């Protein structure tokens, strides 16, 4: 069985929001649209977004690290939002594991959004139905596009390639290898939702060097510490 | 969570209606056992059923306003009965109209006077149509109580709600307000059942106080399973949000926050503790002593207003884990 998902590399994400804007651009006019903005130029603007980039500071000054954190639907393998839907509008596709909403069945009761611990479902203010990341289902399943373009808009837009896309059930896929070899993890594992999307942690490359490794013990220029005696018994003479 | 007034009115109105219907059937069973005076079919049982039906109708109207658009009630809400295998909300959407239908039948049978015994059990218990429908109605009322409460209690990461106490509270609040309403109805119409219903109303109110107090204690000591560490997957004790990714509002910043100060929430709690428990008990006792027509009615009104506050607090006290991602605008 296929389970399509994103793998997001927090080590590479620079927080540029290109995935946010490309997501809105593609989806507002596509299958999942419109993603309406309300009062965009007034005091209290609001609007529908499938993807956000948030910023967190880890640690205490001066030992801090800034983490940019893209957040969208995780396409859980045990999605808590699907069974609670009273009308069957919320569903998980059998063929590729993408969690979707049928706008024609949704009654806008918001119960699925209560049932999602990650807060990735949003009620569209104009259409009054629940909307969420579709992994650009109209793009990734569009066989008229070349293979290289059959990817979510956010993945194609990312300038640092922080977003990988693929089948996490195929052990040899790029995403599975990344999860396996680069410490991929799931968000809020305590709820057993088995998110398909994974995150790759921040990584530091350090070489371990000790002080004595930086200094030559038998430095011929060092006059203070005389060289070991050149005469007398050597180690070879006393050991067998 | 953001308290939705549609749901506050829905749950309190249908709770009182379910309690009242159960009170009416209880009265009928007691009178069959000759523990109470038999009451008039039309002026007591049919009129009482009508009141319950009106409350249920009010709840249904409130529920319509919980939908994205009220028009979805006509065009799409019928789909809500399809997912009863997995969704407690779907089960509620089945149980509510079924219960309304049974209340309508119960009131109708009493109104038409079809209360001749169909058969007798062991020669002592005469079973008529209203008793059969009443029993089915009570079972459906219990089903509806459980379905409504499980909508909240089944959400495992809303830990304040994820407890059997939620179900117990919903049932006891419904019974308390329903029996108080029936006592008020009896007092108003001059039926000699005020003491019977009033006593049970006080008993249920005290039981509701115990279970609600217990759940508040539980919720104050609750240890939330999710924290910034699990939300981001970063192992550090100090993680501060610097930006939620946007300056304006969104569904995430509105739906899951009550947006009121801690002092306001505390005031609501004090208000409902007084109005749901202390005031109705005092008014029912005073009504009993003074044999007043009006005090039991006042008792119900006070308790109902208190229950609106209780349900508001019920939403406000639940902390959704998604709020971890929305702490600072930036």
Draw up the topology in text.
The complex is a heterodimer of chains A (240) and B (330).
Chain A: E1 4-9, H1 18-28, E2 37-38, E3 46-47, E4 51-60, E5 63-72, E6 90-92, E7 99-101, H2 111-114, E8 122-123, E9 130-131, H3 137-140, H4 153-157, E10 163-167, H5 174-181, E11 198-200, H6 211-214, H7 235-238
Parallel strand pairs in A: 1-11
Antiparallel strand pairs in A: 1-10, 2-3, 4-5, 6-7, 8-9
Chain B: H1 5-32, H2 41-64, H3 72-75, H4 88-112, E1 119-121, E2 125-127, H5 129-153, H6 164-189, H7 194-220, H8 228-232, E3 239-243, H9 251-255, H10 262-290, H11 295-316
Antiparallel strand pairs in B: 1-2
Helix pairs in contact in B: 1-2, 1-5, 1-6, 1-11, 2-4, 4-5, 5-6, 6-7, 6-11, 7-10, 10-11
Describe the structure using short key phrases.
heterodimer, A: about 240 residues, alpha+beta, Alpha-Beta Plaits, three-stranded mixed sheet, two-stranded antiparallel sheet, 7 helices, 11 strands, about 15% helix, about 20% strand, B: about 325 residues, mainly alpha, Formate dehydrogenase/DMSO reductase fold, 3 strands
